[in-house]
């Protein structure tokens, strides 16, 4: 079970452009390659389709990066963040919103 996560949300606006195929086939394997040695154990990518009330989501894609320990996330970002973040223009014209968290329950 991961002890910590980084949730990455990509904004969905009238002028946003997100290349999901590139994200899945190139960016995420690169993220795993660079962050794996720093404690990242896996990830989940979700294409967001809307809200329960049927409204359009403010975000198009959510990615949850899983880490063994919370203190590994800032270390991974310090060591490899420039490389990982530098790839964003290859698949998105919007910068993501990122939240860090500790896992407190799972089933």
What is the arithmetic mean of pLDDT? 96
Assign the CATH class.
Alpha Beta
Residues in helices, as a percent range? 25-40%
Largest sheet: 4 strands, antiparallel
Principal-axes geometry comes out as globular
> What is the CATH architecture assignment?
2-Layer Sandwich
Number of domains: 1
Task: Explain what you see.
The chain is an alpha+beta fold. It has a single domain (4-102), classed as Alpha-Beta Plaits, CATH 3.30.70. It is 29% helix and 29% strand. The protein contains two helices and four strands, in the order βαββαβ. The chain has helices at residues 20-35, 72-86; strands spanning 4-11, 40-47, 59-67, 97-102. The chain has a four-stranded antiparallel beta sheet, with helices on one face. Helix 1 (20-35) packs across helix 2 (72-86). The longest helix has 16 residues, at 20-35. The chain starts with a strand and ends in a 5-residue tail after the last strand. The mean pLDDT is 96.
Layout of secondary structure:
Elements lengths: L3 E8 L8 H16 L4 E8 L11 E9 L4 H15 L10 E6 L5
Antiparallel strand pairs: 1-3, 1-4, 2-3
Q: What are the salient characteristics of this protein?
A:
globular; Alpha-Beta Plaits; 107 residues; 29% helix; EthD_dom; EthD domain-containing protein; four-stranded antiparallel sheet; Dimeric_a/b-barrel; oxidoreductase activity
């Amino acid at each position: 079970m991961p002890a910590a996560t980084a949730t990455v949300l990509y904004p969905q606006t009238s002028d946003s452009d997100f290349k999901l195929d590139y994200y899945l086939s190139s960016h995420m394997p690169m993220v795993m390659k660079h962050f794996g040695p720093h404690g990242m154990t896996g990830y989940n990518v979700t294409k967001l389709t809307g809200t329960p009330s049927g409204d359009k989501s403010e975000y198009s894609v959510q990615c949850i990066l899983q880490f063994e320990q919370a203190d590994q996330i800032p270390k991974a970002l310090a060591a490899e963040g420039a490389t990982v973040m530098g790839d964003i223009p290859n698949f998105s014209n919007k910068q993501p919103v990122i939240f860090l968290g500790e896992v407190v329950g799972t089933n």
